[in-house]
Backbone:
């Protein structure tokens, strides 16, 4: 590599939860182009608006940051950072189409000595086995001779206003030692928490999927414990609070596991394992258990209603929360849709309420029409699915007031005391 750090012109490809904060942070020190194929998203950002609510409107007015959907402008850049989604398909197999499409766009734009850094989560080997050949083919340039590659897995935590981009230690790596050092220095320039230079791109890729696979398995354990304790008529939250008095107890909680990372990344690792003849058992067992929690929660609600003499069919049920986690509008891979599907099979009349989620996005992604007004004494059952601060601030009395004289409140996040709810997970 012959490019100087101070002469970089950076292009961020993909302006979602990962790419936008990265573009803003880099624009404080470099000239940055933020590129996205979604013209509506680009126009929104040009107008100083961010539907993800990850950055403040004032951050979007920056002379060093240009938002565009015109890939012709990318040819002026010499450093490309790809931050597009890497989901799974309906068969739980990695869907690399967005990543490969971004690689083609970059391949058309790069020149000699340019640097391409990937942040999208993949299985070990994907960057060099899948993306690099696409870039070589489109550009006509050779890897590690004409262009160079880095990998620095994203660690964005949607909705977290404390652990922001610059305050989270960043893993870096490169396609050769010189590139690895360059990538590390580049991220050190914006990451206050510092960096960790991994031995190789493959090590960095593996570290990312392991981070979320570990969390997934720990939550699966909590979910299994919750199912057992429910049968024993023991409050799970009370058990976990007691266990947490030991210094090395890890504070995981049961619940629905959605989002773009924890509920997806393990499938990338197991896919690669199966491709080389290893057949993961523990990882997939945890995934099956977590993927089944929507059905379990629905069945527990139905049993609770029947126990209280409330007719399930045609009952009016309020589901509070649609985003995959608290205090953010992100509905990617939200497993609340599993609860909705199950209860619709019971022919329940559902209202879904989430003040964080854009109604048009819920309709576009899941064909769900959000309720925007809550009326008192309307519901046979109320289910607290997401621990939004909004719901905590409402208080349990106001939430109970939304129910009919005879109703049940199922608090799967244990937001409120046990004696004020009819069931907790």
Residues:
């Amino acid at each position: 590599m012959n490019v100087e750090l101070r002469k970089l012109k950076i292009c961020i490809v993909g302006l979602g939860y990962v790419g936008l904060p990265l573009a803003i942070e880099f624009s404080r020190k470099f000239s940055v182009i933020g590129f996205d194929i979604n013209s509506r998203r680009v126009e929104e950002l040009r107008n100083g608006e961010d539907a993800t609510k990850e950055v403040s409107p004032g951050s979007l007015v920056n002379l060093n940051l240009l938002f565009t959907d015109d890939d012709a402008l990318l040819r002026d850049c010499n450093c490309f950072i790809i931050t597009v989604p890497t989901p799974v398909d309906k068969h739980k197999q990695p869907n690399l189409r967005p990543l490969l499409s971004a690689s083609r766009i970059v391949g058309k734009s790069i020149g000699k000595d340019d640097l391409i850094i990937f942040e999208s989560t993949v299985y070990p080997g994907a960057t060099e086995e899948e993306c690099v050949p696409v870039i070589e083919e489109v550009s006509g340039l050779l890897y590690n001779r004409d262009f160079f590659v880095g990998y620095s897995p994203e660690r964005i935590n949607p909705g977290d206003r404390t652990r922001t981009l610059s305050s989270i230690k960043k893993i870096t790596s490169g396609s050769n030692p010189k590139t690895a050092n360059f990538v590390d220095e580049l991220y050190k320039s914006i990451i206050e928490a510092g960096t960790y230079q991994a031995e190789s791109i493959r090590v960095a890729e593996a570290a990312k999927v392991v981070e979320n696979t570990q969390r997934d398995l720990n939550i699966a354990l909590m979910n299994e414990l919750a199912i057992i304790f429910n049968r024993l008529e023991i409050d799970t939250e009370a058990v976990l609070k007691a266990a947490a008095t030991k210094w090395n107890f890890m504070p995981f909680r049961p619940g629905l596991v959605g989002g773009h990372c924890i509920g997806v990344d393990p499938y990338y690792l197991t896919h690669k394992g199966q491709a080389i003849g290893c057949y993961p058992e523990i990882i997939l067992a945890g995934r099956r258990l977590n993927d089944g929690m929507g059905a379990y929660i629905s069945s527990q609600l139905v049993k609770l209603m029947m126990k209280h003499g409330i007719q399930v069919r045609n009952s009016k049920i309020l589901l509070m929360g649609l985003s995959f986690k608290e205090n953010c509008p992100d509905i990617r891979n939200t497993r609340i849709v599993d609860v909705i599907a199950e209860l619709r099979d019971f022919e329940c009349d559902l209202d879904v309420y989430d003040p964080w989620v854009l109604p048009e996005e819920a309709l576009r992604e899941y064909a769900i029409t959000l309720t925007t007004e809550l009326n008192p004494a309307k519901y046979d059952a109320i289910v607290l699915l997401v621990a939004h601060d909004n719901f905590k601030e409402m208080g349990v009395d106001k939430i109970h007031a939304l129910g009919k004289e005879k109703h049940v409140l199922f608090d799967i996040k244990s937001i409120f005391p046990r004696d004020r709810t009819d069931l907790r997970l």
About this structure: The first strand starts at residue 9 and ends at 13. The mean pLDDT is 95. The CA atoms of residues 28 and 167 lie 16 Å apart. Residues 201-231 form the longest helix (31 residues).
